[in-house]
Design brief:
The complex is a heterodimer of chains A (397) and B (540).
Chain A lengths: L1 H30 L3 E7 L3 H18 L2 E7 L2 H13 L10 E4 L1 H9 L27 E2 L2 E2 L4 E8 L1 E5 L10 H10 L12 H14 L12 H18 L14 H9 L5 E4 L4 H7 L7 E4 L5 E9 L7 H11 L2 H8 L17 H8 L16 E2 L4 H14 L3
Parallel strand pairs in A: 1-2, 1-3, 10-11
Antiparallel strand pairs in A: 3-10, 4-5, 6-10, 7-8, 7-9
Helix pairs in contact in A: 1-10, 6-7, 11-12
Chain B lengths: L1 H27 L14 H7 L4 H29 L4 H15 L2 H12 L4 H7 L14 H30 L3 H9 L4 H16 L1 H13 L2 H6 L7 H9 L6 H39 L4 H34 L16 H39 L10 H4 L2 H14 L6 H26 L2 H9 L4 H12 L1 H17 L2 H6 L7 H9 L4 H26 L1
Helix pairs in contact in B: 1-13, 1-15, 1-17, 1-18, 2-13, 3-7, 3-9, 3-10, 3-13, 3-14, 4-7, 5-7, 5-14, 5-24, 7-10, 8-9, 10-13, 12-13, 13-17, 14-24, 15-18, 15-21, 15-24, 18-21, 19-20, 21-24, 23-24
The chains are: A alpha/beta (397), B mainly alpha (540).
């Protein structure tokens, strides 16, 4: 009797799992022969190569034709989906899968441009570390609600060359002091580029006493006072920036280029392994190292989502699921291929899958996860609008 | 048939351009139903006018367009006046065609590597000057504008020379020159004083095209332009692709401002030309000034030599970077040269080159067919002036609206729409090149063929086409060159799905792998060169 009591719910769970598996089996069946136009930022040859590998794999395994549409900016794809909606094109949209997070996701979700919810039904989703990595469920301050599937973890790091700058500035105060002594050797990409915006978010975090205030939209009555120290710090730094603060690099890769050329002593990335990739590529010197500021660093998750008018939603889901597989995630975390940290909980993995991650050789320029320090959460998007507008007003014109 | 030809030209050029303009105008005045904006309002314009940096962005775009066009025009006049008189100039004339064919983007990518504070020129002198780090001086947007302006002058001068030479040849200069010689004028001064005004009067369209490109082009502004604030076309793109979708309205309003800026630029050019005309009149009245003319010619030669040296260095630095191992400041040359990048990237580059060539050849062939059909069936050789509309309105100002139109008529992004979008820019050039030679052909050959009992089709294929082999081949090559270099039409009509060398070059040049950007810039420049060589072969 006792056993039977236990059996019933057990069987129910098993049955549910089986039916879920079967449900996804029908998705896989529908996906066969479909073409997925994967709209993803195409500025990094390494990431492009990784996506090419994914394309080969899903072709072999699932008979899916994955085409990488290389974007200069994710918002290009968002505006295309919007234009399609404007024209009443509710099927056969041009975008099937999109690499996305933050305000682009918010814009698509708010304008009903997304297919789903689909993420929680992906078989591999149960391996995601939703408890340890809450940003896999909350994108900036917006709940994903299953409209996007996590792909990788990002954390903001600074990059320096140990040979030329053995002791890089440990926090914002030290950075300002160091810049004053070494004018022209530091800069950041001009917002709204996301690397530059993230640097400003860190300045914002450091300027407020209670970061909790950043999780909701700013109150117009107090926002100016709260932002005053941000502008004060930036005003102080401005004349000591590269080119006297009269010009800024357009984006992260452009800043890397300045670092490679020796025009600046620090660069920054949203990926703890990016420096390693660049060292392995022969672009940065072998003495390159990564670090984070002492007060922590901004972290978030990047996702893939499916537009509402995709005709290949089945295949797009199969690809999203494959991107979450331990094999794909482990390859992605390997700095030889990309170096982007996994969204999975390694404790949930089978021993052989876990071994894939353990075998990854972390390059000395990569900061291991346990040395990344405290993760600072992304502020509400409205804060960023304020800061971007204020920055443009003060320094961008 | 006549109606078909006319309708085809209208449908391929005028309709899309006008529709594109309407598609931008409507959101600019607050009408974008999909986002729930149905009430016309001036709010978008007001918001855009209040954008920080807008005035500076517009002023910079205007300045760079006006100054580069003026310089290129002065140089082109000087070179054209000196042609046939000196050996350097003849050499230049031979170079003009390949120079026109080199895409702006290739030069822009190379120029960026050459002229940055850590660029090759500084690296070459870093060791003798004992520089360990690149010079860190506070130079503002002016420096970026200087580099951008130099690239524009370099690219537009040969184009204007080609136009002026074509015009000059259509004017009989012998009598004017003989008269001037008898009054003690040298040939160059005589051409400058007696003929140049006529050249310029007949080249207005080409000059406006250059001016509009200088003010409104996006790709050079992205690769070389300043960032804080950026040039006006970049500002338009930023707004039109902003994550906050309601900003599309502001983007459309900014596009209108870009059109207004271009119009302002044209007005400024006309005023400047009138003022220059006054000074010119004073010079005319002074009689022969051989010393001044000699100096002008020398300045022109010097500027030309500098530009050619700049161009050569641009391609050397592109080649060097595509072959370089680690190459850090202050090393004057990379320590290692290898073919790693080329070996790794050849499949990609070939694939992009293939797509680019497919689009370019198809577009050029269609354009040629449409133009020939129009010429043959309408019996006219004067082209309708609206044919130039796509060239005298900034691309970004109507392409966004065009993207909307394509969707409305159910044309998804892809190769087909890209070819249609390219036709907007290729057709005018093809028509211009073919119409002149068409008008020049001796009608007696065709009349004889017809009198011998051959039908119009046989006459067309057996008599007219072979007679025009050379100009037709050239028109094809120019069509291909124009198409290869197009960035924004490819991006918008291709929905990002169509990757050509031009889109790849812009993506890479904005950040990313400099070696790959260099290799892409080289292959991008090779395609038009091949087309031109093939055209010359065919013409023989």
């Amino acid at each position: 009797m006792c056993r039977a009591k236990w059996l019933a719910p057990g069987a129910l769970v098993l049955g549910l799992l089986a039916s879920e598996a079967m449900a996804f089996e029908t998705v896989r069946e529908a996906a066969r022969g479909q073409t997925v136009y994967f709209n993803a930022w195409g500025g990094s040859p390494q990431i492009n190569d990784y996506i090419a590998w994914v394309a080969d794999e899903v072709e072999d395994r699932f008979d899916i034709d994955l085409v990488h549409v290389k974007l200069t900016d994710t918002s290009e794809a968002v505006s295309r989906v919007l234009a399609e909606k404007a024209a009443g094109q509710t099927t056969a949209g041009s975008v099937d899968l999109i690499w996305i997070n933050g305000e682009n996701f918010l814009a698509m979700k708010e304008n009903d441009l997304l297919f789903g919810p689909f993420a929680f039904d992906l078989p591999n989703f149960e391996l995601v570390d939703t408890a340890g990595k809450p940003t896999t469920l909350i994108d900036f301050t917006e709940p994903t609600d299953g409209f996007e599937s996590p792909w990788g973890m990002a954390q903001f790091v600074l990059i320096h060359d140990r040979a030329t700058l053995p002791e890089p500035p440990a926090d914002l105060a030290a950075l300002a002091a160091w810049a004053a002594e070494n004018p022209g050797r530091f800069t950041f990409p001009s917002p709204p580029d996301f690397i530059g915006a993230t640097f400003l978010k860190h300045v914002l975090h450091a300027a407020v006493d209670d970061p909790a205030i950043l999780t909701t939209a700013p109150d117009p009555a107090t926002a100016d006072d709260l932002l005053a120290p941000v502008w004060a710090w930036l005003d102080d730094l401005q004349p000591d920036l590269w080119r006297g603060g009269r010009a800024f690099p357009a984006n992260g890769p452009a800043l890397h280029q300045l670092f490679e050329d020796g025009e600046v002593d620090l660069t920054m990335a949203f990926n703890p392994a990016e420096a390693s990739s660049l060292v392995l590529d022969g672009r940065f010197p072998a003495t390159t190292r990564s670090y984070t500021f002492a007060d922590g660093s901004i972290g978030n998750t990047h996702f893939v989502a499916i537009p509402f008018n995709s005709d290949a939603a089945a295949a797009a889901r199969v690809v999203a699921d494959f991107l979450l597989s331990p094999e794909a995630q482990a390859r992605k975390q390997d700095p030889q291929h990309w170096g982007d940290f996994t969204v999975l909980d390694l404790d949930k993995l089978e021993a052989e899958d876990r071994a894939l991650f353990d075998a990854i050789d972390l390059h000395p320029a990569t900061l291991p996860p346990d040395q990344l320090g405290e993760t600072l959460l992304e502020p509400h998007a409205a804060w960023m609008d304020l800061i971007e507008a204020g920055w443009r007003d003060r320094y961008g014109s | 048939m006549k109606l078909v030809a006319r309708g085809l030209l209208l449908a391929l050029v005028l309709v899309p351009t006008l529709a594109g303009l309407v598609g931008v105008l409507a959101p600019a005045v607050g009408y974008l139903p999909v986002l729930g904006f149905t009430e016309p309002s001036l709010a978008p314009l007001t918001r855009v006018l209040a954008l920080p940096g807008l005035g500076q962005a517009a002023a910079m775009s205007l300045a760079v367009g006006l100054v580069s066009t003026t310089l290129a025009l002065l140089l082109a006049v000087a070179i054209t006046a000196g042609l046939q008189s000196r050996r350097v100039s003849r050499w230049l004339e031979r170079l003009a065609a390949p120079l026109i064919a080199v895409p702006h983007l290739s030069i822009a990518v190379g120029a960026a590597f050459l002229l940055a504070p850590s660029g090759w020129l500084v690296r070459l002198v870093a060791d003798p000057l004992d520089m360990q780090t690149p010079p860190a001086f506070a130079y503002g947007a002016g420096y970026d504008l200087l580099v951008l302006g130099a690239v524009l002058v370099l690219k537009e001068t040969p184009f204007l020379v080609a136009v002026l030479v074509a015009v000059a040849r259509s004017i009989d200069e012998r009598r004017s020159l003989a008269l001037a010689r008898s009054l003690g004028y040298g040939d160059i001064e005589a051409r400058l004083k007696l003929l140049a005004p006529a050249w310029l009067a007949r080249s207005k369209l080409a000059i406006v095209t250059v001016l509009v490109y200088g003010i409104g082009n996006l790709e050079l502004a992205l690769v070389l332009g300043p960032t804080a604030p950026p040039l006006l076309p970049v500002l338009v793109l930023d707004l039109m692709t902003h994550p906050d979708l309601a900003r599309r309205l502001d983007g459309a309003a900014a596009a209108l401002l870009l059109i207004a800026t271009t119009a302002l630029g044209y007005a400024a050019y006309r005023i400047g030309a009138a003022l220059a005309g006054l000074a010119f009149g004073a010079w005319l009245a002074t009689g022969p000034t051989p010393t001044l003319t000699r100096w002008l010619a020398r300045i022109g030669d010097l500027a030309t030599t500098l530009l050619l040296a700049f161009l050569a260095l641009t391609f050397v630095v592109l080649a060097l970077w595509s072959l370089a191992g680690p190459w850090r400041f202050p090393d004057p040359f990379p320590a290692v040269l290898h073919l790693d990048l080329w070996q790794r990237r050849v499949p990609d580059l070939l694939a992009h080159a293939g797509t680019t060539a497919l689009i370019a050849v198809t577009t050029a062939l269609i354009a040629l067919a449409v133009v020939l059909l129009w010429l043959e069936t309408t019996g006219r050789t004067t082209l309708p002036s609206w044919l130039w509309l796509p060239l005298v309105v900034p691309q970004i100002a109507f392409l966004f609206g065009l993207q909307m139109l394509m969707l409305v008529i159910g044309l998804g992004p892809g190769l087909g729409p890209v070819i249609l979008a390219h036709l907007l820019f290729v057709l005018p050039y093809t028509a211009l090149l073919v119409a002149d030679s068409w008008a020049d052909q001796d009608p007696r050959y065709a009349a004889m063929a017809r009198s011998l009992g051959h039908g119009p089709w046989t006459t067309f294929c057996k008599i007219k086409l072979p007679l025009l082999k050379a100009p037709l081949a050239l028109a094809l090559a120019v069509g291909i060159s124009v198409s290869v270099a197009l960035y924004l039409p490819t991006l918008f009509a291709g929905g990002g799905r169509v990757t050509t060398l031009a889109t790849e070059a812009v993506t890479l040049a904005q950040g990313g792998d400099r070696r790959l950007a260099a290799a892409t810039g080289i292959v991008l420049a090779l395609l038009p060169a091949v087309a031109l060589l093939a055209a010359r072969r065919l013409a023989r």
